[in-house]
Amino acid sequence: MDLGISGRVALVTAASKGLGRASAVALAREGANVVICARGADALAAAAAEAGADAEVLAIPADVTDPAVPAQLVAAAVERFGRLDIVVANAGGPPAARSLEVDDDQLEAALNANLLTSVRLVREALPHLRAGGWGRICCITSSSIKQPIPSLALSNTARTALWAWAKTAAADLFADGITLNLICPGSHATDRMKAISVPTGPMGDPDDFGRTVAFLCSEPAKFISGSTLVIDGARSVGLV
Length: 240
What we know:
By secondary structure, the protein is α/β, with parallel strands linked by helices. The protein has one domain: Rossmann fold (3-Layer(aba) Sandwich). The chain is built from 7 helices and 7 strands. It has a 7-stranded parallel β-sheet with strand order 3-2-1-4-5-6-7, with helices on both faces. The model has no long low-confidence stretch (mean pLDDT 92).
């Protein structure tokens, strides 16, 4: 299938490893030029080399949780490529914690990392998406928005807040030709998942996840917006 994004410009945050990296690589393989960021310079360079086999890549060492960084990333993308069409908002998850054990500082840090980073990124990118009359926004969250995970109270809270914001924003954006969707992974074979849990049962393939992100950012997905796609191997048991 031709996804219709060859020549488009995508910005993917927290893209040096795991699902962010897989998403950037998948977009590049479809012909999109990609701007990626992450804190670790070595892993970022390796991700850029992989994605750069198929498209032009701009790699920027940066911490997307810094409130000033989203504006800097968008400006760099537009300066380098002259446009911005696709935003994949991703950030590392907060540490494991039980709900009654967290303090205010931990909650504020989680909300900054897993809610406000996406909001800031979309806000900064929006004028450029609107200028092109076409845009795709995909926020990587977690299957915990559908079924909270007992040991991840911080993640459960911040990511569910992002879900509520995104559902509201998607309705405001659709008339401008811009879609906004959430993609919610369960257990995938990433370094983070291995660090926070002992894997039990099958785990998702990050490359498959990346290709799903690329589809949501494609031309054929133009009528998919405000949706929440859970990719967790049928582990969430709720009907909603």
